[in-house]
Amino acid sequence: MRIAFFVNSIEGEATYYATTWLALAALARGHDVCYVTPGDFVLRSDDSLIVRATTLHGPKPKKPETLLNALKDERAKVRTIDIKEIDVLFLRNDPSEDAERRSWAAYAGVNFGHLAADRGVIVVNDPAGLAGAQNKLYLQGFPEVVRPTTLISRSIEEIRGFIDAHPDGVILKPLQGSGGKNVFKISSREEANLNQIFEAASGEGYLIAQTYLPEATAGDIRLFLMNGRPLERDGVHAALRRVPAKGDVRSNMHASGTPEAATVTPEILALAEKLRPKLVEDGMFLVGLDIVGDKILEINVFSPGALPEIAALYGVDFSEDIIIALENKQSIRRLYGKTLSNRTLATL
Known about the structure:
The chain has helices spanning about 20-30, 65-70, 95-100, 105, 110-120, 125-130, 155-165, 195-200, 265-280, 305-315, 320-335, 340-345, and strands at about 1-5, 30-35, 40-45, 50-55, 75-80, 90, 120-125, 150-155, 170-175, 185, 205-210, 220-225, 230, 230-235, 235, 240-245, 260, 285-290, 295-300. By secondary structure, it is of the alpha+beta class. Keywords: ATP-binding, Glutathione biosynthesis, Ligase, Magnesium, Manganese, Metal-binding, Nucleotide-binding, Plasmid.
């Protein structure tokens, strides 16, 4: 099986990225791996879809550092191949990284992923589903009981009114973004620098204001779901607690959050089950939930991370389970051909 990982850029990949570990797991199971970036697609006049894929040559890397070095040095070769020579296109980019600097690239994976799926490639997560989940507004499509009370606006007066209505505090953040960038806790409308916070956070568009959950002081829990269900092996769940640095409301590890082991309670599993119907309907093969108390703060559908940290905490590398799931999808595709839609196949 040949798996193509779609990423923002090869230069930007890191050893601690989940994508790197997924690629290593695929190689370890005997699959071919290549990387594709937003500028690598070509739709030719004969309607064939071509990709300029960065491929590996020589011994298969077994460590993250070796893999990334191999992708970036002379051992890597750019091959022009028909998309039909790829079995699985794994969309693992973060659109928010490209939204400002090169907006054309932000949703290239989603757009060309549609074309790849039409040509028989298994594309995960399903590009049609991802097209409807391009920012944090996606969470609003799930039952009200699973999410904090929320306001989405660019009006500072609307936001001031929302703050007044929630005396325990409000979390303010961009609707489009990731990694904990421009996330602020507002205690009241009298916050001395509220105008400056508003200007900083709204520079990227709409703002999302959520009621502050006091349980957030202990951090949030990142829980992976695969095929709509919690990812688990031998009683161990693919989950961790992300503890914020002292004085910081953000638990993102890109923002100095610390990973710790997490207890996945029956209540958390019941919460995840409430999301399953829509995630399956949307073809969301692999997602990361950010959970505080009994609420979902975010549903990460593009490139959820933390697999290496989970492996370090529990000694279980769930990357292998994810690759095995892709192998199963390929077996189903061989049996059924294109009679099953990509969106259906993505979560089987």
